[in-house]
């Protein structure tokens, strides 16, 4: 009843083209932002920040990045874990080499470096397509992890082979290192998420986004109507890697604090992000958030129920978790292959007609 | 000839045998991809599951004993018998066929006509599911698998080739198990080829691989074919599971052989059985020789993880459909 577009007249093209054309959606969006900025930081505790909120925000950026590549440009990549590692190691090298550099620039520069690496590994996509490309991107995953493991320069010759983030602050508040307070880390990540999601939304409905979608739908036809596949594919790889690199840098610097490449950025990470994108919905910004929330919340929930409530041993619970996650993924794909975003769309369609659907 | 040269040959031979083991896994991928266009990521986990089931039957473990103990507070673990290997293998095969049937009935049937990426994701989900399910059923501890294949190095070969090199060369060291694996892989491929060329079902399989709709229109049941193909893939997984399991124990890392088989597939082409064999040999020899000649001396070792992928990647840039893959013709 509340969700209506009746009476909502658009008097300019700009209004007609806006992201949230329905007033109710728009207010919902502003309310969510206000809630996230004004309420959440004051009610956060350590457990919620570390178990749910920070990983959700950081993986949402990674999912956005991968969604640009897979959902918008149609190039399947399984190398996200490796690209996150590039972001993490780049931020580590930058933080230790230039101690005075502002942390925001460090993170942005790490994203830039990852974008370059992503473009490099995206080059074969001009020749290799489909599953062959998906498997080819695994080369990036394994090679990068091996590289960061074997070349001591990347971890500053530390004896343990680990990298750990030194303390850096923004406006006098520590955002990395041991003294960072949950609320500041949260707001720092939220800022990145907000800007990146906004940019992704506007990029994907602009000229570049349309080129990507043309390539996704049929690359030869796109070429014929004048889309340069080289540019389109490589920009998709670059932008996607930029996002994933930033997610990797944030994951290392703000969330983990210390990381070892094989453990933190292994192939499971690539699959995790891929799951987020598929379950959330390919080619949808909202879907990236929904997928990230689902994949982060569900294991926490399952663990709390099985270990906390039912008192099972943790190894048994973790096996069960595998079964349930696997089963849910299959069920999801069968019930709604277009992901949570599609469910959301359907729900909105229904709501617009409710309570008089005829 | 210097001893190093002979070591090189030894590395080459060992690479061939490792390649055969990769091919065994890749074969399962190719079979399913040809028949249903599904890129079955769960093939490695199927090998793990088959090996776990085999060991469980052999040792008379009670399935789900951990779960039963946790829920009911009992303390059961074994039936207390020891099954002969051949019986256990047959029973495991039946389990794999049942598995194929269930997969078709509960997963594939509902995903007909979906995009390949969705099917691929479904098999990743399946892999997760089976990994947890196998551990729940049989426990996650490392198990020893012994079906009576000889283990260790081949002494005869070592003694009879020692004269080739100088005083610091002790003969070729080849694993008995690897040689048996080669024999079994050869048998498997020959029987698969015979099956697909000379039986009615085999012909139906090839028809489905060629064109789903045409096969349907002449009365071939697609669903029955899928069950058969997944069963055969389950059988191939069982053979791979036995070989890898006897070599390094039955444990979680067994499922990672799927990742070893992927570059083999790329190199050989997703749709070609000979491609899987030749690709496996090239990858096996390539990665062992690279590690021996360049990896260990110059790069600090452990290059085996990525070399296969890089090799396949470079190769694909020049030939995008792989060595034996069907030529990709694209039309608007």
Q: Which spans of chain A of ≥5 residues are poorly predicted at pLDDT below 50? A: none
Overall pLDDT metric of chain A: 86
The CATH C-level name of the domain at 47-289 in chain A is Mainly Alpha
Tertiary shape of chain B: globular
SSE succession of chain B: HHHHHHHHHHHHH
Q: What would you call the structural class of chain B?
A: mainly alpha
Q: Which regions of chain B contain 5 or more consecutive residues with pLDDT less than 50?
A: none
Oligomer: heterodimer
Structure description:
- The complex is a heterodimer of chains A (358) and B (332).
- Helix content of chain A is 72%, strand content 2%.
- Chain A has 358 residues and is mainly α.
- Chain A has a domain at 47-289: ABC transporter involved in vitamin B12 uptake, BtuC (Orthogonal Bundle).
- In chain A, the strands form 2 sheets. Chain A has a two-stranded antiparallel ribbon with strand order 1-4.
- In chain A, helix 3 (46-72) crosses helix 12, helix 8 crosses helix 10 and helix 12 packs across helix 13 (285-309).
- The mean pLDDT of chain A is 86.
- Chain B is mainly α and 332 residues long.
- Chain B has a single domain (3-318), classed as ABC transporter involved in vitamin B12 uptake, BtuC, CATH 1.10.3470.
- Chain B has helices at 3-36, 43-59, 65-72, 85-106, 116-138, 155-161, 176-198, 200-210, 212-217, 222-248, 257-268, 273-299, 304-318.
- Chain B starts with a helix and ends in a 14-residue tail after the last helix.
- In chain B, 45% of the residues are buried.
């Amino acid at each position: 009843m509340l969700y209506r577009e009746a009476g909502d007249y658009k008097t300019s093209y700009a209004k007609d083209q806006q992201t949230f054309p329905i007033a109710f959606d728009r207010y919902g969006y502003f309310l969510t932002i206000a809630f996230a900025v004004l309420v959440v930081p004051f009610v956060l505790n350590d457990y919620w920040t570390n178990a749910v909120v920070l990983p959700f925000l950081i993986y949402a950026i990674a999912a956005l990045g991968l969604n640009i590549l897979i959902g918008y440009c149609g190039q399947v990549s399984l190398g996200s874990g490796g690209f996150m590692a590039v972001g993490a190691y780049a931020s580590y090298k930058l933080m230790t080499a230039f101690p005075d550099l502002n942390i925001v620039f460090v993170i942005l520069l790490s994203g830039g470096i990852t974008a370059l690496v992503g473009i490099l590994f995206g080059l074969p996509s001009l020749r290799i397509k489909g599953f062959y490309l998906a498997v080819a991107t695994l080369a990036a995953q394994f090679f990068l992890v091996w590289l960061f493991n074997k070349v001591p320069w990347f971890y500053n010759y530390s004896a343990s082979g680990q990298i750990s983030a030194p303390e850096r602050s923004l406006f006098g508040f520590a955002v990395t290192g041991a003294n960072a307070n949950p609320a500041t880390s949260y707001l720092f990540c939220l800022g990145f998420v907000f800007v990146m999601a906004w940019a992704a939304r506007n990029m994907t409905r602009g000229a570049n986004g349309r080129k990507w979608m043309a390539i996704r739908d049929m690359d030869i036809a796109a070429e014929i109507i004048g889309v340069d596949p080289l540019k389109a594919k490589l920009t998709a790889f670059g932008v996607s890697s930029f996002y994933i690199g930033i997610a990797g840098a944030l994951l290392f610097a703000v969330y983990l604090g210390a990381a070892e490449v094989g453990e933190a950025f292994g192939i499971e990470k690539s699959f995790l992000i891929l799951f987020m994108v598929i379950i959330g919905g390919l080619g949808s910004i909202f879907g990236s958030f929904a997928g990230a929330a689902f994949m982060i919340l569900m294991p926490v929930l399952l663990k709390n129920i099985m270990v906390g409530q039912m008192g099972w041993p943790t190894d048994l619970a973790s096996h069960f978790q595998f079964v349930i996650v696997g089963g849910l993924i299959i069920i999801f794909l069968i019930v709604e292959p277009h992901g949570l975003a599609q469910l959301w769309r359907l729900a909105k369609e229904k709501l617009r007609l409710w309570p008089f659907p005829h | 000839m210097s001893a190093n040269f002979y070591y090189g040959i030894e590395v080459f031979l060992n690479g061939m045998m490792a390649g055969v083991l990769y091919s065994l896994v890749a074969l399962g991928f190719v079979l399913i991809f040809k028949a249903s266009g599904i890129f079955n990521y769960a093939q490695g986990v199927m090998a793990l599951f088959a090996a776990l089931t085999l060991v469980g039957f052999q040792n008379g473990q009670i399935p789900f004993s951990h779960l039963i103990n946790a829920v009911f507070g009992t303390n059961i673990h074994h039936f207390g018998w020891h099954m002969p290997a051949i019986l256990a293998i047959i029973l495991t095969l039946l389990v794999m066929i049942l598995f194929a049937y269930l997969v078709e009935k509960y997963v594939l049937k509902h995903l007909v006509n979906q995009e390949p990426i969705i099917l691929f994701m479904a098999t990743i989900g399946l892999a997760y599911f089976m990994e947890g399910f196998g551990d729940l059923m049989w426990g996650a501890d490392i198990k020893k698998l012994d079906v009576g294949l000889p283990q260790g190095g081949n002494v005869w070969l070592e003694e009879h080739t020692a004269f080739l090199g100088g005083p610091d060369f002790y003969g070729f060291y080849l694993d008995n198990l690897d040689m048996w694996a080669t024999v079994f892989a050869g048998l498997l491929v020959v029987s698969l080829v015979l099956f697909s060329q000379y039986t009615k079902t085999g012909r139906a399989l090839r028809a489905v691989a060629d064109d789903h709709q045409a096969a349907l229109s002449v009365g071939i049941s697609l669903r029955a074919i899928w069950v058969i193909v997944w069963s055969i893939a389950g059988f191939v997984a069982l053979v791979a599971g036995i070989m890898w399991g006897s070599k390094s124990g039955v444990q979680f890392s067994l499922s990672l052989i799927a990742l070893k088989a992927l570059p083999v597939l790329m190199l050989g082409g997703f749709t070609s059985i000979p491609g899987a064999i030749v690709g496996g040999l090239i990858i096996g020899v390539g990665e062992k020789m690279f590690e021996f000649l360049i990896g260990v001396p110059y790069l600090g070792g452990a290059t085996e993880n990525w070399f296969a992928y890089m090799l396949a990647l470079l190769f694909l840039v020049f030939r995008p459909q792989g060595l034996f893959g069907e030529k990709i013709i694209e039309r608007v």
